[in-house]
Amino acid sequence: MDASIHSNTGLTVIVVFHNMEREAPRTLFTLSTEYQRGVCPEDYEVIAVDVGSSTPLNEGFVKSFGENFRLVRSPAAPSPVMAVNRAAALARGAVIALCIDGARMLSPRILRHILDAFKIYNNPVVATLAYHLGPKIQNESMLDGYNQATEDVLLNTVDWRSDGYELFRISSLAGSSQNGYFLPIAESNCIAVSKQAWASLGGLHEGFVSPGGGLVNLDFYHEACLHLDPLVILLGEGTFHQFHGGVATNVPWEQHPRDAFNIEYTAIRGEAFAILEKNAIYLGGIPPQSLSVLQVSVIKALDWQKKN
User: Fold this and answer.
1) What number of other Cβ atoms are within 10 A of residue 36's Cβ?
2) What does pTM read for this prediction?
3) For the chain, how far is it from start to end, CA to CA, in angstroms?
4) Which of 64, 179, 232, 235 could form a disulfide with 284 if both were Cys (CB 3.0 to 4.6 A apart)?
């Protein structure tokens, strides 16, 4: 393994998979140096965590994306929380970035900007907005026939492998990021904190045992924003959710398990989940493909300002 990671100065990306044979190759490719810009293998490692897949990821397959990739297998469990915490204990980097949903492809400068943020600030939490591939949130687009086959065709309409910013052209803001850059978001599907901060926060709370972890990702973002400073939001970057039958992202709203998730959250934290309002610092740029997101973000922020 490379010197920078061994010397505890690099970045560890933890990405979690469960039965994602179709989605994993795309996600892992977007974490490779063939795709990510401004980084080299010595800057980071990727830990692919397979949580009890019926056809587990193969170590040779994971390493085909780079020698800085490795596979950790974990027993089947409804929640990935314990598997993530075990992987975090194995992290060689001084910074941990968590992608709790392996169906989410990344934009091309996320890793570079995460590393930059930790050069500028001592103890930040770095976050990205989330998007769904397709014309609208997948809970809704699936009702119009959007599925994996439709998505495969859609992905072939843009050259995302050469320029990952093309993913903005075929995606929509996720519900947790629906208000854009300048208003609070509910979670981040690529969130980075120092390894020391991860330990001080206690990692992911292992009380979240619901399928997919329930609201654990929202909880971790909330706790990180509450205890760490500053919050750095990456402009012009994001994660793009592939349709895979997710327990929350790929079901009609009337079947969404939010009530059970909220009950679990309240039992753990003693109060209902609420989005934390925290001023952000912005890092990055605006690729042309994401200008519409900037426009939406400004409009929503101005509307909020008028109402408040």
Assistant:
1) 23
2) 0.95
3) 52
4) 235
